[in-house]
């Protein structure tokens, strides 16, 4: 794994070589991820795994033609050959009127802020083994847990560096820690499985093994002996651990590439009030220790906090340079980069909490469902039609009444957004965080 400074040097070398070879512009991106994980099952060591992958990608532009190549070989002679191949490929590529680097005047300038993404830790397999054993033991200690799929602990390090030929150079490193357990309750055909997990950049921010494991065990036991969900149009309450997927569907619909292709169900609805006027969804890329925090995007543009939904309305599209050109707009600092063309993504997201507790949120529901798991990918990004398998709990007379399984929930995301009501229990635990959510009028059917 290269240091950030070494990665920036290699990326700069590639960009310089590309312009010398005849490219009009270029950018180079280095990414490396090293991870160590230990898994325990039934108190015994099941697996120890160490992986490390690194990649450097070069993208060049010759007029309106472009090409991208990548390699894991950091040898100087290999990188020199990479440049020649990439420029030759670009000369033969079809013209793209939207190809090009981000506008130079919009590039990030100045010193990068310290977002505290790296705690300086190194992988300790013995400490990981102890943590994996502890999280599994905590889950197995819950009365009713009968078997285990295991506990695991992971440590990772990441390096990222981006250089462009028109003046941007930036990089950062991050550490990662995660802990999880998955256990089974019950016997035979009546068995039920559930899990608990958490991840953080700093080990000091990670939940305890006891909390994670106990949560996994209690969730599995709570799912035993499920009944049938009520059918028809009923109120649906969504647990925070799965409610974030609704924000994901919104992001897909406001992503510039989807809008430019005409494949978003929100196309033509950008001025419409989609949510209740109290709903706010915020993108916060500078949150200290945030799982998706970043000072610059995949094209070297500065990032900034933004309400992507304010007063119930979307505030615009999320744009990289190519989709911004297609739509006649300016890029928004949401580009992501892999080995080739850029994509679009938000950073740390949260849906602002409401004013009432989850208990009050469901207090007037005579019969409904509380969703703790969603299954399948039954969402049409063009129409917004939504249909997914689910499991969870029956709500009867305003309280959780027992587990239910093997049913589907269906609706249209436009209607679902309009009916969405949040509770006040928002916690910042993941990259996308939402409180408990209620949506009235969804169709529930038996699977």
UniProtKB/TrEMBL annotation:
Domain Metalloprotease TldD/E N-terminal: 36-90
Gene3D superfamilies: PmbA/TldD superfamily
Record GO biological process: proteolysis
Domain Metalloprotease TldD/E C-terminal: 232-445
Alphabetized InterPro entries for the sequence: Metalloprtase-TldD/E_C, Metalloprtase-TldD/E_cen_dom, Metalloprtase-TldD/E_N, PmbA, TldD/PmbA_N, TldD/PmbA_sf
Gene Ontology cellular-component annotations: cytosol
Source species, domain of life: Bacteria
One term of GO molecular function: metallopeptidase activity
Pfam families hit by this protein: PmbA_TldD_1st (PF01523), PmbA_TldD_2nd (PF19290), PmbA_TldD_3rd (PF19289)
Location of the Metalloprotease TldD/E central domain: 122-224
Family: Belongs to the peptidase U62 family.
The name this protein goes by in its record: PmbA protein
Organism of provenance: Sphingopyxis flava
Lineage: Bacteria, Pseudomonadati, Pseudomonadota, Alphaproteobacteria, Sphingomonadales
């Amino acid at each position: 794994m290269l240091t950030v400074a070494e990665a920036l040097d290699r990326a700069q070398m590639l960009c310089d070589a590309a312009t010398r070879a005849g490219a009009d512009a270029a950018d180079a991106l280095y990414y490396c991820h090293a991870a160590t994980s230990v898994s325990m099952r039934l108190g015994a060591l099941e697996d120890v795994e160490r992986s490390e992958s690194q990649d450097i990608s070069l993208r060049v532009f010759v007029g309106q033609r472009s090409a991208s190549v990548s390699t894991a070989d950091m040898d100087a002679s290999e990188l020199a050959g990479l440049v020649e191949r990439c420029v030759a490929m670009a000369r033969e590529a079809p013209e793209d009127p939207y190809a090009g680097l981000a506008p130079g005047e919009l590039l990030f300038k100045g010193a990068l802020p310290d977002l505290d993404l790296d705690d300086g830790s190194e992988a300790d397999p013995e400490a990981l083994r102890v943590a994996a054993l502890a999280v599994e033991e905590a889950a197995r200690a819950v009365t009713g847990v009968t078997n285990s799929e295991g506990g695991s602990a992971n440590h990772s390090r990441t390096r990222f560096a981006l250089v462009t030929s028109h003046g941007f150079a930036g990089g950062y490193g991050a550490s990662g820690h995660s802990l999880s357990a998955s256990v089974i309750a019950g016997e035979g055909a009546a068995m039920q499985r559930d899990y608990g997990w958490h991840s953080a950049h700093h080990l000091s921010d990670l939940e305890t093994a006891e909390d994670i494991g106990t949560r996994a065990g209690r969730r599995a036991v709570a799912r035993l002996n499920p009944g049938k969900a009520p059918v028809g149009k009923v109120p649906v309450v969504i647990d925070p651990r799965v409610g974030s997927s609704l924000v994901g569907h919104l992001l897909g619909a406001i992503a510039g590439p989807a809008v430019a292709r005409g494949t978003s169900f929100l196309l033509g609805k950008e001025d419409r009030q989609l949510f209740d006027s109290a709903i706010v969804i915020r993108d916060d890329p500078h949150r200290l220790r945030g799982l998706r925090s970043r000072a610059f995007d995949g094209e070297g543009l500065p990032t900034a906090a933004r309400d992507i939904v304010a007063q119930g309305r979307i505030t615009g599209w999320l744009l990289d340079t190519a989709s911004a050109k297609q739509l006649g707009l300016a890029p928004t600092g949401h580009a992501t980069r892999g080995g080739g063309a850029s994509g679009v993504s938000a950073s740390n997201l949260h849906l602002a909490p409401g004013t009432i507790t989850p208990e009050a949120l469901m207090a007037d529901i005579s019969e409904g469902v509380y969703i703790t798991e969603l299954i399948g990918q039954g969402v049409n990004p063009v129409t917004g039609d939504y249909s997914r398998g689910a499991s969870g709990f029956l709500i009867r007379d305003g309280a959780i009444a027992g587990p239910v399984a093997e049913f589907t929930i269906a609706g249209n995301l436009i209607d679902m957004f309009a009916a969405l009501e949040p509770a006040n229990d928002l916690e910042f635990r993941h990259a996308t965080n939402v409180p408990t959510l209620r949506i009235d009028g969804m169709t529930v059917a038996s699977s």
